[in-house]
Fold this protein.
Amino acid sequence: MRTTCAHCTQPLSPRQQRRKGRYCSRRCCFANSLKQRAESVGMSPARVWMAKQRGCLIDRGDAPIVTARRCCVECGSRRNLTRNSKLCTVCQSLGYRWCRRGKHTATLAEMCRTAPECRTCRTADIAERRKRKRLARIGAPPVGSVPIKVGAQRMGYSVPAVLKAIKRGWMADEVTRVGNQLWIVDQPTYAPWSWALV
Ligand SMILES: [Zn+2]
Ligand SMILES: [Zn+2]
Ligand SMILES: [Zn+2]
């Protein structure tokens, strides 16, 4: 387990260590990000990102290097690359695999047994699909509406207070129920309604 920040080497808090954090702060995390490192050497982040996708990026944690030839996305080696493989045979034998959905390397333990993707990406994908299915079943929210929670926040009232006002007839034409969620027309401000609460 890491005990110090991977960027500034300051000790990590016990909480960060428990959560297997790598950086002491968001700032250190950003400073160590590929985008920031690319910008610090005057490279466009988009170019570096594309190179990473193509497998033409050597990234050893400092300034990233873009090469013309394909190289292993994990170790940057240009040797031992088989056709169409993102990883060299050495990294593959070390247990690294390429997650096709998330476009990143993962260890064998993190990969799905049945598909060329890691479990995290698969879980996220399943959740997304479920959400879409649910929306298809109950119908999409009306165009130009926001959830009650958002509307209430904009009005500066709590959700129960707004629900109470709606129950009393306030904004009756502008509120729609979809499934078990209420939606309200998206407006920068709403009609006064303090009378409705009494
Ligand atoms: Zn740090
Ligand atoms: Zn490699
Ligand atoms: Zn993944």
Summary: The pocket of zinc ion (ligand 2) is lined by residues 72, 74-75, 77, 87-88, 90-91 (CB under 6 Å). The chain is about 35% helix and 10% strand.
